[in-house]
Automatic annotation (TrEMBL):
<feature type="binding site">
    <location>
        <position position="102"/>
    </location>
    <ligand>
        <name>oxalate</name>
    </ligand>
</feature>
<keyword id="KW-0464">Manganese</keyword>
<keyword id="KW-1015">Disulfide bond</keyword>
<dbReference type="InterPro" id="IPR006045">
    <property type="entry name" value="Cupin_1"/>
</dbReference>
<feature type="binding site">
    <location>
        <position position="100"/>
    </location>
    <ligand>
        <name>Mn(2+)</name>
    </ligand>
</feature>
<protein>
    <recommendedName>
        <fullName>Germin-like protein</fullName>
    </recommendedName>
</protein>
<dbReference type="Pfam" id="PF00190">
    <property type="entry name" value="Cupin_1"/>
</dbReference>
<feature type="binding site">
    <location>
        <position position="102"/>
    </location>
    <ligand>
        <name>Mn(2+)</name>
    </ligand>
</feature>
<feature type="binding site">
    <location>
        <position position="107"/>
    </location>
    <ligand>
        <name>oxalate</name>
    </ligand>
</feature>
<comment type="similarity">
    <text>Belongs to the germin family.</text>
</comment>
<feature type="binding site">
    <location>
        <position position="107"/>
    </location>
    <ligand>
        <name>Mn(2+)</name>
    </ligand>
</feature>
<keyword id="KW-0732">Signal</keyword>
<dbReference type="InterPro" id="IPR001929">
    <property type="entry name" value="Germin"/>
</dbReference>
<feature type="disulfide bond">
    <location>
        <begin position="23"/>
        <end position="38"/>
    </location>
</feature>
<dbReference type="GO" id="GO:0031012">
    <property type="term" value="C:extracellular matrix"/>
</dbReference>
<dbReference type="GO" id="GO:0030145">
    <property type="term" value="F:manganese ion binding"/>
</dbReference>
<dbReference type="InterPro" id="IPR011051">
    <property type="entry name" value="RmlC_Cupin_sf"/>
</dbReference>
Amino acid sequence: MLRTIFLLSLLFALSNASVQDFCVANLKRAETPAGYPCIRPIHVKATDFVFSGLGTPGNTTNIINAAVTPAFAAQFPGLNGLGLSTARLDLAPKGVIPMHTHPGASEVLFVLTGSITAGFVSSANAVYVQTLKPGQVMVFPQGLLHFQINAGKSSASAVVTFNSANPGLQILDFALFANSLPAELVVGTTFLDATTVKKLKGVLGGTG
């Protein structure tokens, strides 16, 4: 009898245990590796769990003829702490999302409009490339170099999702040429000639 009472008491206690369902980002506080601090639940609104920015095409008037509209915790506070995020890609004709990697997440690409050629390179240097039509999906494993290019003559768009609130981003071209790494070191580590390296540094705003 005592054992039964104990088990019932334990079950009752567990059923009433405090569970933190969400952690809406307090954007007035600094972000940490674990995300933003939570705002108090009493201040949470339904609109914190809604983001409308992906419905508007991004500005593709730039060097890559493409735009990325993020919906991370900084733009979409309700995502904070949930281990996921999303973004919109817009590619004008000849638009490209250059070779890049997300150190902290795998990515799923869902094509909305147009035609997009996408691919990634494995750690064994195997190449996987596919031209995608609206409704098709492609996955890019975490940490691997990948890209997206507009494969048609009209604009293309897609939505990407990540299994991390902070997937991270490193664009290969910018990592090589948009910084202060001395040109001779870039030449020595890429097998490119000095003229090409200096030209690319000039285009992308690098020095050295």
